[in-house]
Amino acid sequence: MRSRLAPLVWICMALTGVDAVAAPTGADGPRSTLVSVEVAHARGTYTVHSVTHYRAPPEAVYAVLSDYSLFTRISSAITEAGVCARPAADGTPRVYTTVRGCVLFFCRSVHRVEQLELEPARSIVARVEPEASDLHDGLSRWQFTALPDGGTAVAFDMSMTPAFWVPPVIGPALVKHRLARDGARAVSRIDALALEYLAARQGDASIIDGDRS
């Protein structure tokens, strides 16, 4: 049976797409590249910084990473994800995710609710609602930059403080090791979904242009 990481590690990884399920690669190598990743831990708070390059353009990668209905396709550790029925009082959209995983003797499901700040094709900011989550606090930020070849560089920064006990073995070294080992396959899955989105948009545009002619 395939081993899985503890929920803490999955939370660090889930929205960057790290998963143990293999994703397709092209003839010239992976569809996308996990360029760098840094993980730190201090006073109960974990921080992650990563940079990933995708072949898909910013608007397509943004469309995937802002669509929570796709998250269970990105990572098998995410058992539930979606948009909350009620937005925040100021109208800000709220989203939820539940992740499940085990490492050694430690298994746990972790639920979180976040408020989203969206700037299409440029940035996503997700702020944890502690009262509705298994975290004391948390903040995630994705920044999208167009690459000269038409692809996208995504800088991901996250900080979170779990509201549950985490075994000392689950530290920055383990998180970074798994990100580096499994990241390329998983970000390829995000890239594939982004390219599917792009193809669908281009197909819709062709149909509209054909109707106009």
What are the SSEs and their pairings?
Layout: H1 7-14, E1 25-26, E2 29-30, E3 32-42, E4 45-54, H2 58-65, H3 71-74, E5 78-83, E6 94-103, E7 106-119, E8 123-128, E9 135-146, E10 152-162, H4 172-212
Antiparallel strand pairs: 1-2, 3-4, 4-10, 5-6, 6-7, 7-8, 8-9, 9-10
Helix pairs in contact: 2-4
Q: Can you walk me through this structure?
A:
This protein has an eight-stranded antiparallel β-sheet with strand order 3-4-10-9-8-7-6-5. Strands 1-2 form a two-stranded antiparallel ribbon. The protein is of the alpha+beta class. The N terminus is likely disordered. The longest helix has 41 residues. It has one domain: START domain (Alpha-D-Glucose-1,6-Bisphosphate, Chain A, domain 4, 2-Layer Sandwich). The protein has four helices and ten strands; from the N terminus they run H-E-E-E-E-H-H-E-E-E-E-E-E-H. Helix 2 packs across helix 4.
> What is the count of helical runs?
4
For the record, the count of structural domains works out to 1
What separation lies between the terminal Cα atoms? 56 Å
Strand content bin:
35-45%
SSE pattern, N- to C-terminal: HEEEEHHEEEEEEH
The CATH superfamily label reads START domain
- Oligomeric state, counting identical vs distinct chains: single chain
Low-confidence stretches: 1-7, 14-30
Major sheet strand order: 3-4-10-9-8-7-6-5
Major beta sheet summary: 8 strands, antiparallel
| Overall spatial form | globular
CATH class: Alpha Beta
What is the CATH architecture assignment? 2-Layer Sandwich
Q: Fraction of residues in helices? A: 25-40%
